[in-house]
Amino acid sequence: MDYVSALLPPVVMAAFFIGLVVTIVKSQGGPNKAKEDAFVDAAYARAEATRQADGTAAS
Fold first, then answer.
1. What are the CA-CA distances from residue 46 to residues 40, 50, 52, 59 (Å)?
2. Residue 42: what pLDDT?
3. What's the pTM value of the predicted model, to 2 decimals?
4. Which residues fall within 8 angstroms of residue 48, CB to CB, at 6 or more apart?
5. Helix, coil or strand: residue 1
6. CA-CA 20 to 30 A from 30: which of 2, 3, 21, 44?
7. 58 CB-near residues (< 8 Å, 6+ apart)
8. Would you list the DSSP string of the chain?
9. 20-22-36 Cα angle (round to 5)
10. Could you give phi then psi for residue 40, rounded to 5 degrees?
11. Chain centroid to CA 10
12. Cα(49)–Cα(11) distance, rounded to whole angstroms?
């Protein structure tokens, strides 16, 4: 039974990691993509506006 207790944590962690990767891949694109892109674009525009208001040049 020692081999079962030795193998159980890596197997559980591997299953969790596979589930995480599958969830990330499934959440890419689809109906949420437009919302995510709009949020990133808005954050980038705010950062650019702040940078220009401070008078620093964009690199």
1. 10, 6, 10, 16
2. 93
3. 0.48
4. 58
5. coil
6. 44
7. 48, 51, 52
8. -HHHHHHHHHHHHHHHHHHHHHHHHHHSSTHHHHHHHHHHHHHHHHHHHHHHHHTPPP-
9. 85
10. -65, -40
11. 24
12. 49
pLDDT tens digits, 1-59: 888 889 999 999 999 999 999 998 887 777 777 888 888 999 999 999 998 888 765 55
Q: Which residue do the tokens 């990691």 mark?
A: 17
Q: Which two tokens stand for residue 43?
A: 């954050």
Which residue type sits at 4?
V
Tokens (6 digits) for 18: 């596979």
Q: Which amino acid is at 40?
A: V
pLDDT value at position 36?
80
Residue indicated by tokens 């506006």: 49
| Residue type (1 letter), 56 | T
